[in-house]
Structures are given as C-alpha cells and as structure tokens.
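Backbones bend. We report:
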Amino acid sequence: MLMNPASSDTDTLAIAAFAANARRPEQTGPFLSADWRAPLNGGKAQRTNSVAHAQFRRRSTEAADYRVEISSADAVSSRTAISDGIVAEVVQAAGRDKFEFRFRAPMHLLVVYEQGTRQDGDTFVEGLPRSKLRDFGRRLTLVPAGREYLEWHAPRTFARLMFVYLDPAKLQVPFNAGMTDVTFAAKLFFEDATLLGTALKLMRSLESPTPENRCYLEALGIVLAHELIRFHEGTPRAEPQLRGGLAAWQQRIVTAHIEAHLGEPVPLATLAQLARLSPCYFCRAFKLSFGMPPHRYLTSRRIEHAKGLLATRTHSVTDIGLTVGYSETSSFTAAFRKATGLTPSAYQRSLG
C-alpha cells in the first residue's frame, strides 16, 4: 500500500525542510556542457552514465534516496514525503541563468510544469524524440524507472514545477491490488486535465504543509497514483448515442483549453482526450453542441481575439497574427477577411 502511518519522523523533517524553503548547494554548480547532448551510446556521455549507474546500484531503492540533479544555484527546491513510496519536490527558478535537470534511477518520475517559458532549451526522455517546446506551462512529462531524463532551459519567464518520485515496487493501489509492478511508457509534454488538476492540488497543498493536512497530502498522493495508472492503461470510454452533443463539463474543459492555446496548434486528438471520447465521436458531438466543427470554432475564437487586440491599437497586425497562431501575416489576413469581409487593417480603421 502507498500509505505508511509509521513515517512521522521522516515526514516532520521533510515538512521542516519545505518550510525553510532550503536551497540545494550540494547539487548546484555548472554542469551545462555539450556532453549531455551526445548520443547515449558513445563518447564521454556514456562514461558519465556508467558512473551514475554504478552509484545508483550502490544506493537503496527508497524513493527518498533519489532526486533530480539541478545545475543552477538560483533554483530553489523543497521535498516532502507524501506517503510510503511517493516523494514530491517543488522547484522554482526565478533567475535568467541557464539551468539543467538530470535524472536516471529505479524510480518513476512525473514532472508537473505549472508554469514557465524558455527562450531556448531542450528536453529529452530516453526512448523519445527531443523537444524544444518553448511554452511548457500546464504540461506533464513521465519518465519510467531506469530511463534517462535530461532537460536544460535558457529561461524567458519564472519557472515553477514539481517532481513526483514514485517507487514502482509500492505502486499497489486498491483498484489494482494484484499488480506487483506497474510498467509505464515514457511521455513528453503531454496534457491530461484530470491528472494535472490533482497534481496541482498536491503542489499547492505543499506550499504550506502542516501536520494537520498530513492525511490530505497522503490522499492526494494516492489519488495521483490512481490517475497516473488509469491514464496509462486507458480508461474504457462509454460513448452514448448522440443526442445533445457534449456534456456541460466536456464543453467547459474543451473551450477552456482552446482559449488557453489560441496561439498554438490545438490537435484534435488532444481535445478528444480531454473530453474522454474518441476523435470521431468527439467531432460529431462537438458539432452538435457548437454548430460547427472544432477547427472552425478554433478559427472563430482566434479571429474574435484578434478583433479585441486590433481595437487596442497597441500591436501591429503582424504581432497580432502571431499571437493568435498565424505564422505568416498573409495567412492571418486571409483568414480574417474570410471571417469578417475586411482585412485586419481595414477593420481597425473601421473602428474610428
């Protein structure tokens, strides 16, 4: 089981460390170099990894024994033991200096990005293509036990995230009591509203941990483990006959996601996943609910947002086009004219 009522001493120390908002001088210092960019099967990077593996083998397999290495002295982190087999670490990086994360251990690692953007950077999880995603806020990354995780940032804004370490041997939750080993698949910068919501609740509860909310933290840890396993396994989707389209909660979560990502590509598969429906069924239900397909709704919301920006007269047409997801001014102008009958400049002039 995940809960361990006999861990009060450890928990008290962990809570004290969090309250002190302690820095991690033992793991700070520059190790941003070209070595980590090298292929994993050759050169200096391979030798470095071999040393790391030897160190891991000499250590015990408790979740509290492992942590992500952080290169920047500006990064502040605080760890808390949530329950037996689960440890959470909140990390904040407010400076503009580059920082790097490194991790490989016999623990699962869930990275919860609450907020942050970077001017440059690279994120790698062994077995997946690298990602240079600039705006990673409200995303998640899953690193299965034994996989390598490397990430560096040239930050553009304040970054805040959480590392959740999960002991594979102790991921036996009530609805999966017979499971002795949970095998996860690596996932990079994925989105799941349910999983993210629980993770953020845990993160915010850790901001002011007290002995009184100990049970609440443990409960959140167990729920997070539940949802992570269910997300990985894929929950069965009950797709009723089309009558009234999307349910109210589905409409809210999908439209909120679209509003938050007007300047980015919004894959149909992502929207369908948020609504917990297959893409085909989701398209039909969405059209019943909103009177138009998802892609047309997205375009209409982008144009409405652009109208508001044009009315302020504080941004150029090119900048507004980029803000609402058009990489070229010509494509933005064409879409705006098709929707309104006017070019963006003519619309702006019409406002007087």
User: Anything to note?
Assistant: The radius of gyration is 23 Å. The chain is about 40% helix and 20% strand. Confidence is low (pLDDT under 50) at residues 1-61, 174-180, 235-242.
